[in-house]
Amino acid sequence: MNGAQTGHGSEAEPVLISLTAPARRSLVRGLVCDTGSGAQTGVPRLSADRPDAEIADFLAGIVHTDTGFVARTDSGERALAIIAATVAALCGEDIRLALARPDIAFLTALKPPAVEALRGVLLAIETEAAEAVIGALTVLDVG
Predict the structure, then answer these.
(1) Model pTM greater than 0.70?
(2) Which of 2, 11, 100, 135 shows its CA 20 to 30 Å from the CA of 34?
């Protein structure tokens, strides 16, 4: 013996624990908010109605900062495009393609670390049309 004492005899009993995957943070739960309430002042805001080229340039840069940003749109379709484009920017993929054709299957298959990365960059989507935006984003809410 190595001199260690267990206090329960010479052989220790195994301890059974349940190993489950951590709960997945939602891509969209809590993301949509009323205009002006998404984040502190000083956090960059992006109008999702800007041209795709401008949005792509903005996203390519913002994903390399620690500030994050708040998107502003009243369009559910455009909110979905911003989410897809932000993920594309984080992954080094084609941002303009993601804006034009969000890949729902890819987005809903994101692993928890990728969801956390997205939510660390895209802090909120501000809108005056919360019901419409939330309705359009339900395609991403798998949990």
Answers:
(1) yes
(2) 100
Is the Cβ–Cβ distance between 82 and 125 less than 8 Å?
A: yes
Q: What is the pLDDT of residues 49-65, one digit of tens each?
A: 999 999 999 999 999 99
**115: how many CB neighbours lie within 10 A of its CB?**
18
Owner of token pair 């932000």: 86
**Which tokens is 84 given?**
């897809």
Side-chain half-sphere CA neighbours of 131 within 13 A: 0
Distance separating alpha carbons of residues 81 and 140, to the nearest angstrom: 12
The pLDDT tens digits of the residues spanning 16-50 come to 665 555 555 788 999 999 987 756 778 999 999 99
Q: Which tokens belong to 54?
A: 């401008």
